[in-house]
Design a protein that fits this description.
Length: 502
Amino acid sequence: MAEKKIWHGESKRGLPSRARGLLGLGFLGCWVLTVGVFASAQTATDPGPRTGTAGAGSFQSGLTTNEKNFEPPIAGQFDQAFSVTGTPACYCTTSTGTGSCAPQTCQSQFGLGPRFNSNSCASCHAQPAPGGSSPSSNPVFGFANPSNTVPSFEQANGPVLVPRFPYQISDLSVPDGLVHQLFTITGRSDNLPGCTLTQPNFTQAGSQGNLVFRQPLPTFGDGYIEIIENTDILNNLNSNLAQKQAYGIGGAANIADDGSISRLGWKAQWRAILPAAGAEENVEMGVTNEMFPTETDQSNPSCVTNPVPEDYTNYAYTGVNGQVSTYTNFPWNFPEGADRDAIFIRFLEQPTPGTCIADTAFGETAAQTCSNGQQQFKSAGCALCHTVSYTTPAGSIPSMGHIKAYLYSDLLLHHMGPCLADNVVQGVAQGDMWRTPPLWNVGQRYWFLHDGRTNNIVTAIEDHYCTGNSQYPISEANQVVTKFNGLSAQNQQDLINFLRSL
């Protein structure tokens, strides 16, 4: 049977420990090696998320009037808190006079559970604005009750961690890989009569080395990523081959069922925003919808009494009780909630970089710091995976067409070695493979890497380094990290300052 590993323990920068079960020997060896390689090499520091305006979370400025009319209700949908039961119909009953309606009168949604991680999209995708990454204060602590305790791997001031079991907890020879939700609706004031469920045995899974995590990804700019041409991604894969081979960098596309390239999610497991939004609604909140119309847990019939799907297309949006009225002015009542979430994400603008911090220790202005940092980012080889930009094709949403998206990602999968492996296979993505995460807005995130193991950009760079073992090859980033460590103190710090400006 393949060796199973999890990450846990203190970061290499002395950051607070986030207990995550027993330490696997595979990571221990990697940790010791990494400390030995980097302890004397690193001089750069990360002072934390940059302050100032968010520079993210706004809608595209070029949306048409009709598209703009959707902004209030789709923002309200993304922020909507679901209850277990409620009123199945949803109508917009008031108008502001601009074609929009107040979100609080537009939504009344139900279907939370039977198992869930949170009750709204915006609770976990919050930093630095709705649609973003995990906030500084963990929202899952708001769901604790006598029947549902917060698992020990979650910390009040840590990232939201979504748990998965790589293998069946009852038979470690059988792959699992699924999300095992933190909470059940048991013990809630709106719980269904007779619905009794227990939380997963996270303690047992941790003791087996069978517990891994992912934190929420920011969604800013995903609308642009969604329509990047397949050929552009493949052409980029096949560019600079000699340099990539010298660095040990490969890359692979995760191919969707239609033959196109999946490019969303930690393992590029989603091709498009809409199915990803539907899956998140069903998996993270337990709300069934037209893409995922069955409950994730049907073990107790008393917990699944709502008609399914719970989130659905509202064919009666033209009026109440069949009467045509001014409701025809509110077409956003027609799509199901998951569709509105997808539109919200699709309309989000790509993040705007912030102001670079001047490297005064070396007598540099802010402009000099970021200019040099960007050059070091390229010369160290970071840009071989973190591709600076793609240009979108013509878009049916005009504001999205022919836009240069500065995502800093090739949208491809790369082997990162056993140190970052989660042993979960998704499509082409093997247990140690991850999509190159876009770096736009990285300077305002609290937590880095797929499992939020560090809040320090320098440590995140170090953690890209890993030797291989009998199960997984070495990290494709090893030579890049070695180059980074070979930079002068000034060049290292300028590179970090540049990243924090994104």
